[in-house]
Amino acid sequence: MIRFATPATFDGALRNLPMADDAARDAAAVRQAQLTKPAGSLGRLEEIALFIAGWQGAERPALDRIAAVVFAGNHGCAARGVSAFPAEVTAQMVANFHNGGAAINALAGACGASLAVVALDLDRPTDDIAQGPAMSETDCLAALNAGAAAVPDDCQLFLPGEMGIGNTTPAAALCAASFGGNAADWVGKGSGIDDAALARKRAVVDEALALHSSDCGSAFKLLQRLGGREIAAMAGAMLAARHRRIPVLIDGFIACAAMAPMARFTPAITGHCLAAHCSGESAHGRLLDALRLAPLLALDMRLGEGSGAAVAAQIVRSALAAHGGMATFEEAAVAGAI
Ligand SMILES: Cc1cc2ncn([C@H]3O[C@H](COP(=O)(O)O)[C@@H](O)[C@H]3O)c2cc1C
Ligand SMILES: O=C(O)c1cccnc1
């Protein structure tokens, strides 16, 4: 299992990415061309099937084991009035996940995913990013490794999710520091804040950018200075999944923001990822463009927890059902194109 012993190990793992199995993808494309339908008529479902074939290394990929993991963390900047909810909701929602009562419990169940919850030092919020680094190097490494360790070895599709009151604030800061622009470009209404809170949130992000921008020369530094524990854990999990060639379905604004520092330095990091949806968070579309990902769905969801990924997993399931289950023209004795 991959372990990030030092910041350099993490940044090094990002420079040394395994690629998909082209032979398996090609074999899947040959099969796809023989199925009883006009070429291309299943649209993006065809592309999804080939994508999963390449990462699973199988002509007919399977989806028996989908793993959803919700990472939870608390944020010092929540004390700045940037969320519509109090910080104690993070721990209360973790209890709700354990009791089966959250949206992700229902939606993971509906798509047939296993669900695990990883709470990261909830009684030790990160520091306010407008005042200093969010975490120490040691704490950031611990979060990255907790993420890497949470990816089950045998899963066929990984769905990272998050819970952390205030976390759309560091997410916006990470986007700006990774892709340019300022708070006005990346800050949105998160859990549903009013205009006064929106102004406070923009100020926190602009102050954080001014404070840290001169020392953001690596993906690790970005995550350590401007991220949060659950955000770093998602980054570690998505990088670890890549090293095991496990495809990832990325959820909303915060999960995509966890990708931003890695994509800033290594755009190819998103190669094993599908974007589940475009969320209702105003900057998510811009973020998806920067990551060069086209979302599968746009349902005006703006929840997080991995909820959009769990819904989109049903699309992936449909893609693989068609790819693996259909008859070929020859098997069905149907005449091909003239
Ligand atoms: C009850 C509840 C459940 C949630 N589940 C996800 N989030 C989402 O909202 C938070 C981010 O929004 P902000 O930055 O405005 O705080 C994160 O916890 C995110 O996962 C929730 C938020 C609440 C209140
Ligand atoms: O896009 C998301 O995942 C999101 C948006 C707002 C609040 N929580 C999550």
UniProtKB/TrEMBL annotation:
Which one GO biological process term can you cite for this protein? cobalamin biosynthetic process
The residues that cross the membrane are: none
So, what pathway does this thing act in? Nucleoside biosynthesis; alpha-ribazole biosynthesis; alpha-ribazole from 5,6-dimethylbenzimidazole: step 1/2
Query: Which chemical reaction does it catalyze?
Result: 5,6-dimethylbenzimidazole + nicotinate beta-D-ribonucleotide = alpha-ribazole 5'-phosphate + nicotinate + H(+)
Q: Which Pfam families does its entry note?
A: DBI_PRT (PF02277)
One GO molecular-function entry:
nicotinate-nucleotide-dimethylbenzimidazole phosphoribosyltransferase activity
User: EC class of this enzyme?
Assistant: transferase
Q: Which UniProt keywords apply?
A: Cobalamin biosynthesis, Glycosyltransferase, Transferase
- Show the InterPro entries listed in the entry: Nict_dMeBzImd_PRibTrfase, Nict_dMeBzImd_PRibTrfase_bact, Nict_dMeBzImd_PRibTrfase_N, Nict_dMeBzImd_PRibTrfase_sf
Residues the record marks as active site:
305 (proton acceptor)
- Record-listed E.C. numbers: 2.4.2.21
What function does this protein fulfil? Catalyzes the synthesis of alpha-ribazole-5'-phosphate from nicotinate mononucleotide (NAMN) and 5,6-dimethylbenzimidazole (DMB).
Q: Which NCBIfam families match?
A: cobT_DBIPRT (TIGR03160), PRK00105.1 (NF000996)
State the family it belongs to.
Belongs to the CobT family.
Report what the protein is called.
Nicotinate-nucleotide--dimethylbenzimidazole phosphoribosyltransferase
- The organism is Croceicoccus mobilis
Upper classification of the source organism reads:
Bacteria, Pseudomonadati, Pseudomonadota, Alphaproteobacteria, Sphingomonadales
